[in-house]
Amino acid sequence: MESDPQKMVALLLGIPGARLIELRGTDDTLDLLIETEDRPVVCPECGSSVEFSGRVLEDLVASSAGGQVIRVTWRRRQWRCVTADCPVESFLENDAGIVEFNERVTAANSRFPLRPVVSAPSDWRNRL
Ligand SMILES: [Zn+2]
């Protein structure tokens, strides 16, 4: 049994490199705030270096484990190109593990629909 909570989250979600920022349990859900691995990024348009320009919150597809509904929110980094005349102003990081997670969970939910939950989603805005 894996005891490192960080590795447990990556394993549980199947998102390589994912890191748990905070976990909140509600009556009928587990709400997780995660971020993905901090990898080197360049501008997708001109290939220049980029600077950090903030984060946004993105909800992933809800899943279930051990009878509980799991709601994962991704704290997604935003970058800005440093080249003055580049048409790209800012862009969001991409992560193949997140895309695969959403696809996998959507397929699982179509076979085993999630039970409805009543708890309001966690508000993570103070963790941006
Ligand atoms: Zn650029």
Characterize the structure shown.
- The two termini are 31 Å apart.
- Helix content is 20%, strand content 34%.
- Strands 1, 2, 3, 4, 5 and 6 form a six-stranded mixed β-sheet that branches.
- The model has no long low-confidence stretch (mean pLDDT 91).
- The chain is elongated, with a radius of gyration of 17 Å.
- It has one domain (5-116).
- The chain has helices at residues 5-13, 96-111; strands at residues 19-25, 29-35, 50-59, 63-65, 68-81, 90-92.
- Zinc ion binds at residues 43, 45-46, 48, 81, 83, 86, 88.
- Zinc ion (ZN) binds at residues 43, 45-46, 48, 81, 83, 86, 88.
Unreliably modeled segments: none
Kindly, what is the distance between the CA atoms of the first and last residues, rounded to a whole number of angstroms?
Answer: 31 Å
Helix tally equals: 2
Q: Considering DSSP H and I runs of 4 or more, what fraction of the residues is helical?
A: 10-25%
How many domains, as an integer? Answer: 1
The largest sheet, given as strand count, sense and whether it forms a barrel, is: 6 strands, mixed
Q: Average pLDDT, to the nearest integer?
A: 91
Q: Which structural category fits the helices and strands?
A: alpha+beta
Shape: elongated
Named once each, the bound ligands are: zinc ion
Question: What order do the SSEs take from the amino end to the carboxyl end, as H and E?
Answer: HEEEEEEH
